[in-house]
Amino acid sequence: MGYWFCANLDQGEILCAKVWDVLIGLQVAWNNEIKKIMVESDSAIGEQLILMIVKNVEWPEQFPFKPQDFQRFDESSDSVFYEAPRFVTHIDDPAIAALTKYYSKVFPPSNTAGVSHFPPGYKQERIIGMGMNEEELKHNPVLTKYAVQDLNVSPKLPFEDNSFHIITNVVSVDYVTKPLDVFKEMCRILKSFRSPLNEFNLAKISANSFSNRCSWTKPISIWTSTSDADHALLAGAYFHYAGGFEPPQGARLLFCSSNINQLK
């Protein structure tokens, strides 16, 4: 017995069509309660795309992006936009599970219990969250402190130099309008430590994750007009041009039917 399907994907990249081919096929199998599946594809590059996209990049001498690349469809105040708390997760449960599993491999050792996207049982003496809505931050039980700040207005981070082991940024890098300022500040407050992310050599570590979901009126224009592969390259460029970081690495995190991309 065989199943055939077709879909109109409009215009796009060949790689995108191949990935949709696999996704639709898996959905057909799942809907027909077929649980043992072998996936074959002639596009091995799709599996390695995010891993390789920022490897051995010949970066231009100067930051190649223009101010208009960081404009948004909605340029109204972010403070107003985020005024009402949104007690939701912005990626689905399988993607959260993939990200949590990834964190468990790269975080400094834990010393007590905690929750959030961080690994179960993980907490440190100091875990500080930063966001736009105080009520949301208050309801995050893993945090020991929090700071309400609009980085698009004031990218200066209110922390001392070399005071954090790791910075995580979950599905927010696409909303940052002053990325070089923010990433330079991230570098300033990070201390080097030995992480498996850098083969246990001393390095400053920041894990920035992103997916294909967003609130379309608030991300920067270059994000909403480019592909997932371009997003990986863009985030990698932030690390490179901010200075002070090791060459960026990419990882594609998979869990069941969901995926999430990671730049560090």
TrEMBL record:
SUPFAM superfamilies for this protein: S-adenosyl-L-methionine-dependent methyltransferases
Pfam name, any one: RVT_3
GO molecular function terms noted in the UniProt entry: nucleic acid binding; RNA-DNA hybrid ribonuclease activity; S-adenosylmethionine-dependent methyltransferase activity
Highest taxon, organism lineage: Eukaryota
Transmembrane segments: none
Domain RNase H type-1 intervals: 13-49
Methyltransferase type domain boundaries: 138-191
PANTHER family the record matches: OSJNBB0011N17.9 PROTEIN, S-ADENOSYL-L-METHIONINE-DEPENDENT METHYLTRANSFERASES SUPERFAMILY PROTEIN
The name this protein goes by in its record: Methyltransferase type 11 domain-containing protein
